[in-house]
Amino acid sequence: MNKKGKGRLKYLLQQTEIFAHFAEGSQTKEKKPRGRGRPASKRRAVEEDDEEYLQEEEDALASSVGTHLLVQPSCINGQMRDYQLAGLNWLIRLYENGINGILADEMGLGKTLQTISLMGYLHEFRGITGPHMVVAPKSTLGNWMNEIARFCPILRAVKFLGNPEERNHIREKLLQPGKFDVCVTSFEMAIKEKNSLKRFSWRYIIIDEAHRIKNENSLLSKTMRLFSTNYRLLITGTPLQNNLHELWSLLNFLLPEIFSSADTFDEWFQITGENDQQEVVQQLHKVLRPFLLRRLKSDVEKGLPPKKEIILKVGMSQMQKHYYRGLLQKDLEVINAGGERKRLLNIAMQLRKCCNHPYLFQGAEPGPPYTTGDHLIETAGKMVLLDKLLPKLKDRDSRVLIFSQMTRLLDILEDYLIYRGYQFCRIDGSTGGQDRDASIDAFNKPGSEKFVFLLSTRAGGLGINLATADVVILYDSDWNPQADLQAQDRAHRIGQKKEVQVFRFCTEYTIEEKVIERAYKKLALDALVIQQGRLSGQKTVNKDDLLQMVRYGAEMVFSSKDSTITDEDVDRIIAKGEETKAALDAKMKKFTEDAIKFKMDDTAELYDFDGDKEENEADFKKIVAENLVVELPRRERIRNYNESEYFKQALRQAAPAKPKELRIPKMPTLHDFQFFNSQRLNELYEKEVRHLVQTNQKKDTIDGEDEDQVEPFTAEELEEKQRLLEAGFATWTKRDFNTFIRACEKYGRNDIKGISSEMEGKTEEEVQRYAEVFKERYTELSDYERIIKNIERGEARITRKDEIMTAIGKKLDRYKNPWLELKVQYGTNKGKFYNEECDRFMLCMAHKLGYGKWDELRSAFRKSPLFRFDWFVKARSAQELARRCDTLVRLVEKENQEYDERERQARKEKRLAKKTTPTKQAASRVSDGETAPANPSKKNKTPTKQKMTPTKRAGETAPAASSKKRRQSLMDDFLGSGKKGKA
């Protein structure tokens, strides 16, 4: 073990004796073999050894005293709070002892500021300017850059992000030794650009949201271990939420010399029957104490206003009940038999969609055309509640954050906010970095009129400061309660001036009640820290839990088809919500007390809190059996046993063959981009299903009793259905549609040939037909405004390119040989490095190759003999040539405009001259006594002017002509024309 490693181990052993268990192996393995020694002439003197030992003792003494700041570094702007300064001192102590650490303060306590202040301390007091690397989620990079510029502007920060061309520019111009202090990049970019980042020896590698590397086999975790660094710092608000192995993965990343074996780590915390839980908790705390700092807002931020959570329960509309019942009946066999977990998880997801809004299902929303109206609110219980709640919040000058897991639900909420006239911002997983930062700034700026901020729970819950809002609405709850906590902490953080209210929406007597209850159980178990040597928490919900959730509330759903949405006042609903939250807290308190009483080997029982699993299962089967009267004829029924058939066979009597039931055809999935007539197809399909169901029921009636008149489904309707299916584009996939849109952006909507060249497996005729339908019915697409805007933007680029090519061509047409004669009117825009010959060649080649072919233009410069020794031009990148060409194009367009103006003026003067000249000539002849000719149409022919050829003076030479011939010869050779210059 090297000197630095020994010092680190010494510090850890001073902190706690538990590391001796892990360090023994490290010390014994790294002892160097003694060997036979060195010759006496090369042995060190005793005095030298004593001097080295003395130096080591002095270093140890200095490190034991350490640095303790009483005031923040002067390079840090703003005022750090006391606990933040304490956090900085803790980070400095880790640095001085050569220890990596985990900054795990609760979300909203300023972990970013504490980290920036550490880099500022190193810059100001130690003269260490970096380089440091911050690796964070893409959504937080803008916040990191803003915070560095705001709190420590002396640090030169570079955001390493963008497309390949932008990254290449950053790599060549900014990410160079001595030109930056901090590199801020994303997880994905660290993986893509690992070879570029491996060139540096980093002082600090800082990983934000460090739970991303809890799997030591992940690509990100492996990549981060490749970088050379002196120190590593992990930042996370949720450090201990899974199991011991993931904790070992973090410790192994921080201290690979000590925590080298996962098996050893697991053995150390293996619980036997004689050990009690408290001992294991104490051992874990001893392990983590030296390098993990965890503080809660309730402990350190006394001035932060409180946070109050209220669970608001709502009923379901008639449409929601219809879909909820249908989902349970559709997958009845899976629910009764307890099918595989994946299918149960899908059922749970569909039920949760139904609780949010029935319009999330294809075909539920009336249209096309799709309209925004009261039906958007009345068809979902949560929307009714939201419509009551928002006016009250606006009247009291509150500002609202609305979180949902489903981005399609955010689309519905966006339509609702537009319908009600509320101003809003939105961020989800598809929002770009610049748009994200612009939305946050627009919401947070003083005097902002934005009332609502729509966010997706996962994408909007990280690294965003929205403390200007004081109300958080969780439209639906996440399976992982930590995600909901992160969402709440977007508002409940430093800088918040008001009490934060959290309204958690829950649809009563549905799966959502169980999801919320399970989330609270998980949080309660997280507080226990350990179960059987494992840190609390199950990563995923198990199959039994899913079954209980799906079956919950079936009786209430089937008992009535009417809407259960109440007309209660919103204040009364909030009061009920407070009671519901208090009851749930009491239940969780009892649950926690009972869980602590369990033995460590009874952990599996902790999640089976209800204890009525078998009773619930029986009740569910009974409820569904009693209510499946009309709905289930859509399923194929098979009789396993028939007494009549049995006795007929026993008596060898041939039983009459039972007529085969007609199978109900499956309705194909109709996507909007396939341009089916969905409304009419749905009508025909429903009518056909009713016809087949009634026909089958008639066959099953005893003695052929005819209960209902069978609704006819005619051959004409069947033919119409087939024709409508053929009229759509059933073979076009989402990938084909996206390719078509990109091709339209590239070539324009009218260039069918160009679009067809991009489409794989589609003929030009198919593309032509699709393009015609697209032009007529594009408004049926769900996001047609965005699609058309992108296409029009691409067509504008094509138009601009054509304009540029026309302008260059017009300029070149004014010269007999533009390769030699073309001149550019620079004005004040003449560059210092590009000469006229270079600009002339660039314009001519751009006209020949086409505007935008920058790589080909760069290659042409390098191959041309004219620039054989022009190293400046040959060293230019394609992007630099593009910028120069754009400058020349602007000059050419300005020159063409002036030229056209002069031409128009000359033509105008010529027309005026023609009108005035005959009048003047006639007046002159009259004044001289001449008479007008008899036939005015016959005019005297003007004598032909002789062509004057200038004579060459004696002794005069023509060097310009000789140089011109030489350049012409070089140009002809380069262009491959094979022509020789004429004398």
TrEMBL record:
GO terms for molecular function: ATP binding; ATP hydrolysis activity; ATP-dependent chromatin remodeler activity; DNA binding; histone binding; nucleosome binding. Residues 727-779 form the SANT domain. Residues 385-536 form the Helicase C-terminal domain. It is found in: Nucleus. Residues 23-51, 897-983 are annotated as: Disordered. Its main location: nucleus. InterPro entries: Helicase_ATP-bd, Helicase_C-like, Homeodomain-like_sf, Isw1/2_DEXHc, ISWI_HAND-dom, ISWI_HAND-dom_sf, P-loop_NTPase, SANT/Myb. Keywords: ATP-binding, Chromatin regulator, Hydrolase, Nucleotide-binding, Nucleus. It comes from the Eukaryota. PROSITE patterns: HELICASE_ATP_BIND_1, HELICASE_CTER, SANT. One of its GO terms (biological process) is nucleosome organization. Residues 31-43 have a biased composition (Basic residues). Residues 92-257 form the Helicase ATP-binding domain. The keyword Nucleotide-binding applies. Residues 897-906 have a biased composition (Basic and acidic residues). Belongs to the SNF2/RAD54 helicase family. ISWI subfamily. This is Chromatin-remodeling complex ATPase. It comes from Triticum turgidum subsp. durum.
